[in-house]
Amino acid sequence: MLTTENMSSPSQTDAAFLASYDPTAFERPSVAVDVALLTAFDGALHALLIRRPAPPEHDKHALPGGFVGIEEALDAAARRALRDKAGLDRVFIEQLYTFGAPRRDPRTRVITVAYVGLINAARFTAALDAKPGGEVARLDVPWEGETGGAVRAKSAVGKRLRLAFDHADILGMAVKRLRGKLNYTAVGFQLLPPAFTLRALQEVHETILGHDLNKDSFRRRMLASGALEATGEREEDVGHRPAELYRFVRQSAV
Amino acid sequence: MLTTENMSSPSQTDAAFLASYDPTAFERPSVAVDVALLTAFDGALHALLIRRPAPPEHDKHALPGGFVGIEEALDAAARRALRDKAGLDRVFIEQLYTFGAPRRDPRTRVITVAYVGLINAARFTAALDAKPGGEVARLDVPWEGETGGAVRAKSAVGKRLRLAFDHADILGMAVKRLRGKLNYTAVGFQLLPPAFTLRALQEVHETILGHDLNKDSFRRRMLASGALEATGEREEDVGHRPAELYRFVRQSAV
DNA sequence: TGAATAGTGTCTATAAGACAATATCCC
DNA sequence: GGGATATTGTCTTATAGACACTATTCA
Predict the structure, then answer these.
(1) B37 and B119 share one domain
(2) pLDDT digits over B138-165, tens only?
(3) CA B187, CA B119: separation in Å to the nearest integer?
C-alpha cells in the first residue's frame, strides 16, 4: 500500500517516529520578535526605541523586542516585549515581516519576526513617563507612497539616532505597511483616543501618508464608509467652532 | 530564558562581548520555509502539494518546504525548496507570513516562514510532468473578498485532500494576500505566459478574486494603467476574431 | 453566411476635487 | 464683533458600469 521511496519505514506510526526524532540534529537559529511601536503627533510618526545598554550594537537605539520562548506564541512574545520594555499592555499589534539575513546580528544567526504596534499619543507619552529606558524617536521617511526603504530616526532635540541591527529597515517596512493599509482599512483610529474629530483623523492620515489630503473628499469618504459614528459630543475650549466627536464602529460582517 | 539583554558590563566592547557570547544558552526553535506555489487555470487557483512520505502527518499533503540552513537567507531557502521539491527555478516568490503556533508541528517547535510563489500554468504542469512527487491541488476558497481563513484542496479527480500541519491556513493566507495585491499591483501577469490577451488577464483576475469583473471597465483600467504594451501579434486559431496579444511593461519609477 | 468574441462609442451613475456660503464657538 | 474652524451645498471633472454597435476571424 505504501511506496518504497520513503525516508523512514512507512509502516512506522507517527508516535513511533516522534519517539525517535532527534531535535538537535541540525544547528538552529535563534528566533526573536521586534515591535515597531508607532504613534502620530506633531505632524510626524514616532516610534519607541530603547538604547542598548550592552553589546552588540552598544548605545545604538533598538526596537523593543526579545527572544521567543520555546513554548511561546509569536504574538505573545511581541506582547511580552511591549510589557517588559515599555510597560504597555493591550496594544494593537500585527505581524509585519520576518527579517532573517544571515549576518544581521553579529552574535549568531538571529531571525526576527517583526511586528507593528499602534497606540495613541497620550498612551505613548504616558508609558514613556512611567517607565524609564524608552525614548521617543521622530521618524523621517525619505520616500513617497509605498516605495519602501529605511527611515531615519531623530531624538527629541533633533539629533539623528543610530539604529541597531536592521531596525531602520523594519521601521521603514512598518511605515510602508501602514500606508498601504490606509487605502482599504480604518486603521488610523488605533492612533487616536476613543473619541476624535474628523480633522484629527485627517491629520493622522496625512501624517502616515506624508502628504495632504482633500478635506471635503476625506470627510465624505469617512462618513460614507460607515466606520464612524457620531458621539453627540463636541470638542471644547478650542477657540473656534467646536467639531463633532466621532468614535469608530466595530466593523460588522459585510 | 526570556530576557533579551545579557548582563555583561556595558563598557565591554562588542568584540569582547562576542568572544564571550554563548549561543547555546537558550533552547531554540527550528525554522523552516514553506512555499504556496500557485497557478491559475480552469477557473480555479491551483497549488503544488507533496504527499508526505513519512511521519509526522504521514500521507497528508504538504506545501514544498524545508528547514532553513544556519547560514542561509530565508528567500534562498524558499527557492531551494522549490528547486529540490518541484524542480523549479526562477519563480516569482514573496514572503507571506510567519506561522509559529507552539504545537503546529508535533516533533518540536517549528516556526515556518511562509512564501507565496506565482507561476504560469504551462510551467506548473511541465514541472509536475518532469518531476514525480508533486501533485496539483485545486483550491476551493470558502470565503469572499479578503475575509481570510483556511481553504480546501481537491485532487485532480475531485477528492478532498487532507492537508498537513497548518498548511490549509497558509494557503488561505496566500489567496487573501493575492486578492489584496490585485487592487493596487499588476501581479496577475506572473500567472500568465509572456504574451496574453486581455481576456486571459481578466480570467486570471476573476479566478483570483472569485467573482466576475466588468469587461469594459477592466479593459479600460488595464490599458490606462500603463502596465500593458501591445505586442502587435494576435492570437491564432481561436474560431472567432483573434485578440491582440499584450505583454507587461516593467514598471518604471513613478 | 453564421457563430463567436474583439474592440469602439456613448450614455448614465457615482466618487473626487474645488469652492462658496453659512454656522458656531471662544475671545 | 472678530477670528477661526465646522458643516452644508453646489458645480465640475474623472472613473465605473451598462449597453449598443461594428469588426474580424474560422468553420
Answers:
(1) yes
(2) 999 999 999 999 999 999 999 999 999 9
(3) 11
Is A125 in a helix, a strand, or coil? helix
Mean of the pLDDT values across residues B226-239?
A: 89
Backbone angles phi, psi at B243, to 5 degrees: -95, 155
Task: Give residues with Cβ within 8 angstroms of A145, minimum separation 6.
Answer: A179, B254
Residue A9 domain-assigned (yes or no): no
Residues of chain A found within 8 Å of residue B57, distances taken between Cβ atoms? 14
Is A196 found in the same domain as A152? Answer: no
Domain CATH for B80 = 3.90.79.10
What is the value of pTM for the model shown?
0.90
Interface test with A, best of B28, B68, B103 (most A CBs within 10 A): B28
Long-range contact pairs involving A121-125 (C-beta distance under 8 Å, separation at least 24):
A121/A39, A121/A40, A121/A41, A121/A191, A122/A193, A123/A39, A123/A88, A124/A37, A124/A39, A124/A46, A124/A48
Q: What is the pLDDT of residues A170-212, one digit of tens each?
A: 999 999 999 999 988 889 999 999 999 999 999 999 999 999 9
Strand partners, A50: A62, A134
| Nearest Cα residue in chain A from B27 | A70
Cβ density class A106-116: b for 16+ within 10 Å, e for less? ebebbbbbbbb
Whether A88 and A31 map to the same domain: the answer is: yes
- Taking CA atoms, what residue in A is nearest to B99? A74
Rounded to a whole number of angstroms, the distance between the first and last alpha carbons of chain A is: 48
Distance from residue B43 (CA) to nucleotide D24 (C1'), in Å? 27
Q: Does one domain contain both B40 and B80?
A: yes
A167 with A63: CB under 8 angstroms? yes
Q: How far is residue B203's CA from residue B197's CA, in Å, rounded to a whole number?
A: 10
Helix (H, G, I), strand (E, B) or coil at B200: helix
Q: Which residue, B41, B62, B45, B50, is CA-closest to B135? A: B50
Helix (H) or strand (E) holding B228: strand B228-234
| CATH code of residue A196 | 1.10.10.10
- B242 is near strand D: CB distance < 7 Å: yes
Cβ A57 vs Cβ B12: under 8 Å: no
One-letter amino acid at B36 equals A
Q: Alpha-carbon distance A58 to A56, whole Å?
A: 5
